[in-house]
Amino acid sequence: MTNSTPPLKVTLPPLYPKQLEAFYPPNNPSASLICIEGSVKSGKTYGLINWWLCEIGHWGKVGRVFTWAAPVYSQTRIAYRRVKHGLGPAAYLRANDTAQTLTLNNGAILEFRSTEHESTLRGSECWALAVDEASYVKQDAWISLRSTVSHTRTVSDANGRQAGKTVLIGNVHGTRNFFWNLSRQAESGTDPAMSYSKLDAYDAVKGGILTLEELEASKKTMPIEDWEQMYLGRPRGSTGSVFGDSYINAAIEPLSSEPVSAWGLDIARTIDWTVLTGISKTGRVVYWDRWQGVSWEETLRRVLAAVGSTDCPLSVDSTGIGDIFHEQLERSKIGRLVHGYKFTSLSKTDLIQSLIVAIQSESIKFPRGIIEDEMHNFGYSLRRTSTQFEAMTGHDDAVISLALAWHALEKYGRRSDDSWGIW
Questions:
Q1: CB 287 within 8 A of CB 260
Q2: pLDDT tens-digit profile of 195-232?
């Protein structure tokens, strides 16, 4: 880099007052670790970008690394695109869209990293760490991230400004995660190196980035406890699951020996699992299996072997690549048993809401393990035009498979007190 290289200058739109105080705490400006619990649409992600770029502008030099971390790749991708677009091509020398790195004109390296594999997070020396959606980051990943600022936090400038600062933002998602505990530690005020703030949807209304009309309208679209967790930051149970922790725990029992009466099949995509679930007439899980990385022929063989021996209806995900496999099943010896389920935003909502009712009315029972874990991790995600049910991190294949099995039982089984009837 030569002396003619222009300095990094970025003009950022202003933050609203409470947002500004959260990221730049006036009562504790030297805090090196800042926890911000924020509701949806409270401006926490934009505030984090604002803070991060300011740190980069101050500490950025050739070869210095600045890390943005989020639980899954898709979330890091959103941040990468926002920052790249916001800076504009005049601000960076190189952009690697595959690795999701930007090398700025001041020589700083911006990296956007998923925390899915915590062992890959170690080793970097980070000069400013931004952690997005921290309530879904695993504790082991946080430990690895924290180690990346251990050396840089010993560096200060001539005015005493410390490098290696860290800001974590996230929705409240239950109380069984490291971010909840870290936020409570910061909120206690016992450690002067930590700062805590909370931004809820009413703060966003006062700040002018959300309308009161939209906020009140959102309240009518979901259970009040879910709305309060999403928009006010009040935890819904220990995990924040849409099914409810107590209902999940009450539904756990050993695999049943009753005969299978309906099947649900969720088809794997990329790194997902294919999951086949069989439930009895009383809603108990009787059969459960999952696999990944096998051929379509092997998947077909496994499904035919299980379903074909019971002569019971099968609901199968027929979306995308699932449509091809659905057609194969329809042409097979169990074709008359097969019913495709096409996923859209609305149809997935209907499917999950039906499963929520079944769980909370104690109509479904399942064994401990993967189904239980995925249910505890299943929540809401706010999209531009809707609220979407989905796993907050990891997989939801077991939940979807069970939901499809329940759908098959309810819609195609036509249950009565003592017989199936016509389906």
A1: yes
A2: 999 999 999 999 999 999 999 998 887 777 778 888 98
Q: From CA 303, how far away is CA 305, in angstroms rounded?
A: 5
Helices in 132-177 by DSSP H: which ranges? 139-147
What secondary structure letter does DSSP report for 8? P
Query: Nearest 5°: phi and psi at 146?
Result: -60, -35
**Torsion (CA) 143, 149, 150, 154 in degrees, nearest 10:** -160
- Report residue 2's pLDDT band, with 50, 70 and 90 as the boundaries: very low
DSSP string, 255-275: PP-SPP-EEEEE---TT--EE
Tokens of 85: 């677009």
Confidence tier at 419 by pLDDT (50, 70, 90) = very low
The answer, as to whether pTM is greater than 0.70, is: no
Q: Comparing C-alpha atoms, which of 243, 264, 260, 261 is closest to residue 252?
A: 243
Nearest CA to 39 out of 151, 270, 254, 206 is that of 206
Structure tokens at 96: 């690697």
Residues 375, 394 contacting (CB under 8 angstroms)? no
Structure tokens at 181: 């505990």
Q: Which two tokens stand for residue 256?
A: 């049943």
DSSP string, 178-209: HHHHHHHHHHTT--TTEEEEEE-HHHHHHTTS
> What tokens were used for 283?
């809603």
CA–CA gap between residue 318 and residue 2 (Å, rounded): 57
d(CA 237, CA 276): 29
Q: Rounded to whole angstroms, what are the CA distances from 193 to 28, 140, 297? A: 8, 22, 58
**Residue-wise over 5-20: b if at least 16 C-beta within 10 A, else e?**
eeebeeeeeebbebbb
What values do phi and psi take at 75, rounded to 5?
Answer: -75, -35
Give the whole-angstrom CA distance, residue 143 versus residue 126: 14
Q: Which residues pair with 68 in a beta bridge?
A: 112, 130
Q: Output the six-digit token pair for 253.
A: 């029992």
- Asked if 379 and 238 touch (Cβ cutoff 8 Å), the reply is no
Strand partners, 389: 380
- Strands 314-317 and 338-341 turn out to be parallel
**Res. 423 pLDDT band, cuts 50 70 90:** very low
